[in-house]
Amino acid sequence: MLAVLSITAPIFLLIAVGYISVKTRLMPQEAIPGLGRFVIYFALPALMFSTISSMDFGEVIEPNYLAVYALGSLLALLSGIGLHRFLLRKSLVESGVKGIGMSIPNSAFIGFPILMQVFDSPITQAFALAIMVENILILPLALIIIESGRRKEGENSGNIWLPVFSRIVRNPLIIAIAAGLFCSALSIRLPAVATEALDMLARASAPTALFVIGASLMGTQIRGNIYSISTVVTGKLLLHPLLVALVLWLWPAFDHRLELAVMIIAAMPMMSVFPIIGGNYGFRNTCASMLLITTVASFVTITLLLGVLT
Predict the structure, then answer these.
(1) DSSP alpha helix (H) spans, the chain
(2) 80, 176, 234, 298: which one has the fewest Cβ atoms less than 10 Å from its Cβ?
(3) 297 near 237, Cβ under 8 Å?
(4) What is the distance, to the nearest Å, from the Cα of residue 213 to the centroid of all Cα atoms in its chain?
(5) What stretches pass through the bilayer (predicted)?
């Protein structure tokens, strides 16, 4: 267990440092969104592009990993929507928002740093494939379901496909993956000076991301129905990884490192922009509460998971 704590403790220590820095006003809270944009628009895209572009094209895409993660996450999304819609009698809009919370992990800000701690060499391929599944399949599907619910309630009469498609093509991580795949397929290699600059940006991604997560939690208060919140928290930290584990158990074996990585990614708390997405539909405070509780509780669940898997 001490070996596992040596993996998770530094991760959550950096999160705590981010929280304390804003709490004590050493870092102004107004600066945190800028740091978050630095991670999403510069550091992580640099990491993914430099890694993917340097790989052989045939090695980038692992169909088994994609299938396991996509099926497990899709089951988590549909389970979350079905639970809230048919058992808890919530609107389709609210059910869709909570389904997102149960099925899309924080791969970028917490998942990748933990992968870097678990594996001797960075396993960027697993992270990039997870980002593809989340942003090309799960999130668009959830948003289409939510917008369909709004249309039935008379709140939306516009085109529900265009905003979703626009979100995908403007995502900097998806752009970086596509550019990396393009360079990999054509065997394009950047000059050494450009490669070194990208590597310098990439090295800043993990610690900055963890710092931002902690800092962004400062000021968040637990608001909303605790039963409703606990349902989503349980769904994300337990149901999602269990469904991925079930699919993985039924699926033919593939690269053990990727099998381990897919379980780790699925066990992460929900993505950091969950309150922003929920805020678009009137659930910002509740979603922020869910994010806070899930992130704090994930220290225990992730530590236990790594204790079992490693």
Answers:
(1) 2-23, 32-38, 44-53, 57-60, 63-82, 92-103, 112-118, 124-133, 139-152, 161-169, 172-185, 192-203, 205-217, 226-234, 240-250, 256-266, 274-279, 284-309
(2) 234
(3) yes
(4) 12
(5) 6-22, 34-54, 66-88, 100-119, 125-147, 168-188, 200-217, 237-254, 260-283, 290-309
Per-residue pLDDT tens over the stretch 155-181: 665 677 777 888 888 999 999 999 999
Residues 6+ apart with CB under 8 A from 66: 129, 132, 133
Which residues, in sequence order, are bridge partners of residue 270?
Answer: 105
Give the span between the Cα atoms of 138 and 205, in whole angstroms: 24
Distance CA 175, CA 116 (A): 22
Q: What is the pTM of this model?
A: 0.92
Running DSSP on this structure, what letter comes out for residue 269? P
In degrees and rounded to multiples of 5, residue 248 shows phi and psi of -60, -40
Provide the residue count of the chain: 310
Give per-residue pLDDT as tens, 252-267.
999 999 999 999 999 9
Q: At what angle do helices 63-82 and 256-266 cross, to 10 degrees?
A: 20
pLDDT by residue (tens digit) across 92-137? 999 999 999 999 999 999 999 999 999 877 688 899 999 999 999 9
Q: Give the tokens for residue 272.
A: 């950091």
The neighbouring-strand residues paired with 105 are 270
Rounded to whole angstroms, the Cα distance separating 173 from 135 reads 9
Collapsed DSSP state (helix, strand, coil) of residue 299: helix
* 77 neighbors 95 (Cβ within 8 angstroms): no
- Distance of CA 283 to CAs 87, 160, 280, Å? 20, 20, 7
